[in-house]
Amino acid sequence: MERWLGRVAVVTGASAGIGMAVVEDLVQSGMVVVALARREDRLQEIKHRLQGKPGTMHPVKTDITKEDDLKKTFQWIRDNLGGVDVLVNNAGIFIDGYTPEGNIDDWRKMYEVNVFALGACSREAIDSMKERKVDDGHIININSIASHRLPLMSGGVPYSSSKFASKAITEGLRRELAAQKSKIKVSSISPGLVATEIFTANNPTKEVDFSQKGHLLPKDIADAVHYVLATPPNVQVNELIVRPVGDGI
After folding, report:
1. Region 77-97 average pLDDT
2. Which pLDDT band, with edges at 50, 70 and 90, does 150 fall under?
3. pLDDT classification of 209: cutoffs 50, 70, 90
4. In this structure, which of 3, 53, 139, 169 has its CB flanked by the most CB atoms within 10 Å?
5. How far apart are alpha carbons 187 and 204 in whole angstroms?
């Protein structure tokens, strides 16, 4: 990770769960981390906790589904920090719903965050890299095992479809950059079940007892991000699936 010392990483969905764990790891690794989320109070708490670490954290309240908000944030990064070297697209939402009911409002919310915002953030980060002639940047998309197969239980198919789209965009982005002779890396990390609030944040009646299920912790995925970033310049991890031990699905 030595080559990333002092360089700028943007992490979306940074106020909790996987995003928070990634921010903590990258700051500990000496990076300048711009943490994006809508919950500014949580971002400030994380910043306070990370004071004195090798790197620095800049909390920026941002709604990545709003184009104007997103552009202002990346302009702030450009003006104050120079630009983006690493982007971790972590923000994601899950809304439980049966496909035959066709709750398009819920589908739209998931696609706005899980697909459209991922694409917009990637665009802004790559533009930043190209305008500064940074050719060793890295885009890491936190995807899901749900992008590799349909869920066995009903209620998760619309979410799964958004993650299938995310995975396709990630691979398409890698191929198109390669066709441009760019050495910017693009990686997808697909976790299995992780103990976070994603399942309950937009499903107030849903309860998940993680003690009864094999699961991963947010730090496990932050470790995966660390591994992918630490690979030498000639190595690109396309897809990394991380499952809890004993997952037989």
Report:
1. 96
2. confident
3. low
4. 139
5. 32
d(CA 45, CA 39): 10
Other Cβ atoms closer than 10 A to 96: 18
How far is residue 99's CA from residue 104's CA, in Å, rounded to a whole number? Answer: 10
Nearest-angstrom CA–CA distance, 189 and 211: 24
Q: What is the mean pLDDT of residues 92-97?
A: 92
- Encode pLDDT of 31-79 as tens digits: 999 999 999 999 999 999 999 999 999 999 999 999 999 999 999 999 9
Contact 139, 125 (CB under 8 A): yes
Q: Which residues are catalytic?
A: 159
Instruction: Give the predicted TM-score (pTM) of the model.
Output: 0.93
Residue whose entry in the numeric block shows the structure tokens 């004993």: 246
DSSP 241: E
Amino acid, single-letter form, for residue 89: N
- Per residue, the 3-state secondary structure of 215-227, as one string, reads CECHHHHHHHHHH
Residue with tokens 């990076």: 31
Give the single-character DSSP code of 196: S
Angle at alpha carbon of residue 116, lines to 110 and 118, rounded to 5°: 100
Which pLDDT score, from 0 to 100, does residue 249 have? 64
Which backbone phi and psi does 138 adopt, to 5 degrees? -145, 130
Contact 96, 201 (CB under 8 A): no
